[in-house]
Amino acid sequence: MKVAIVPVTPFVQNCSILWCPRTMRGVVVDPGGDCAKIVAAINEHEVAVERILLTHGHIDHAGGAAELAETLDVPIEGPHPEDGFLIDGLAEQGAQWGLDGARPFTPERWLDENDEVSFGDVTLGVRHCPGHTPGHVVYYDAATRVALVGDVLFRGSIGRTDFPRGDHETLIGSIRGKLWPLGDDMNFVPGHGPISTFGTERRTNPFVAD
Known about the structure:
Blueprint lengths: L1 E7 L4 E7 L5 E5 L5 H11 L2 E6 L5 H4 L2 H8 L3 E2 L6 H5 L1 H8 L18 E4 L2 E7 L8 E5 L4 E5 L2 E2 L2 E2 L9 H12 L7 E4 L5 E2 H7 L6
Parallel strand pairs: 3-4, 4-5, 9-12
Antiparallel strand pairs: 1-2, 2-3, 6-7, 7-8, 8-9, 10-11, 12-13
């Protein structure tokens, strides 16, 4: 699996384009906005995008999903249905944070623990990792050892839990119970900031280190 990270919006959120190098079929994960920038990157890498995947329903990750889905004529999948209230309120979130164009939508498919998403020769596993939001999911490719963790975990930090229905203890449980078992050698792309590995965070992250 190939990965291209496209930072978008003033939140500098890591929208990611994933694709199978043999078939060039792919997906876009967390298009928070700046859809023209995302489309330009898709065209640059010559990826045939099949669907949009969301880790959770916050504006900086889902704000551009409806527009991009219409532009590319592809379905939206994810997150877990517990984040439905956030997706329903995307327009209000946009007004609150000063981002234009965000609007609610209904994903073609909600996702849950142990679901899978395939494109080309790639199959992503899904983990339900609540805490930052109640319906947050994580995607991972066991073959290439890459995970897309949204705002669950960052290099040296963890996701905020002071938003509606966030919970600190639940988040810590998700990281230790759902992410660590995937292996210390798993590289991860967080929702913001630089990439890292689960092993590095288990050794050095002051919030979740062993």
